[in-house]
Amino acid sequence: MPDRLPLSAFIICQNEEAYLGRCIESLDLCAEIVIVDSGSTDGTLALIETFVERGSPIRLFRESWRGYAGQKQFALEQCREPWCLNIDADERLDDALRAVLPSLLDASETVVGWKVARRPYLIGYGFTPERVRERKNLRLIRNGRGRYDLAQRVHEGIVPDGEVRPSEKGSLLHFRPLPMDEQILKENKYSSLKADQIVEAGGGPRRLKMVFNPPLYFLRLYLRNGLWRCGFPGFIEAMTGAVYSFLTESKIYQRNALKVAPASEPVESAADTRSDAQ
């Protein structure tokens, strides 16, 4: 067993039996693993128990669903080590990230967090190569130096209290190979959450974004970020991002339109009916 780092990994989960094991295995460097389950009915809890029996430093909490940001904030608050790592049940650390973690945790006190790349698995290709410029998100934070914005319904992130730097090496590997029919259901759900968040905050129709954001989203992912390197699987990934963008903007438009004029079937007057008959 390698020497454990002063790091608490925290995971929220529900029915993640198929993925959680590989995630936990990649966290053997962590002094603590906080898992918050929101009501699993598959074999997730039994799987966690097998890791506990093997000596894995897991602390399991059962907590009713608070929303993505609320659930992760609860998990973060349970962490006891000096550094905290946000990782999803279907993610794991690659070898490069495992190797660089000690130096990241040894950063000067002025650095409160690190952004880490996330490389997804594409059906028909595999994990995107390191040459693809995947977006880096804040995943590693000093304990007590960041918290989640509870107003964020989806794509929630840690709001840091201090300097954050990007890690030049290492990635989180995201393995959830959803076929397109299931992926579209996910994009539909997430776009609804995003649209509701924007509308409830007072956001009005964004007509130009509805027209231009989807193609720009595609071009950014496919050309600038380099998904073209992944062939047709990369094309599908970039196009799926454009679909999410369009769904979000169109839902914002329609939700605002329904506020102004709720949908109702027009009723023709008797005079209109006579005129049409003539």
TrEMBL record:
Its EC number is 2.4.-.-. PANTHER family: GLYCOSYLTRANSFERASE, POLY-BETA-1,6-N-ACETYL-D-GLUCOSAMINE SYNTHASE. It holds the Pfam family Glycos_transf_2. Belongs to the glycosyltransferase 2 family. WaaE/KdtX subfamily. It is an enzyme of class 2 (transferase). Coiled coil: none annotated. It comes from the Bacteria. Residues 8-113 form the Glycosyltransferase 2-like domain. GO terms for molecular function: glycosyltransferase activity. The keyword Nucleotide-binding does not apply. This is Glycosyltransferase family 2 protein. Keywords: Glycosyltransferase, Transferase. InterPro entries: Glyco_trans_2-like (IPR001173), Nucleotide-diphossugar_trans (IPR029044). It comes from Aquibium pacificus.
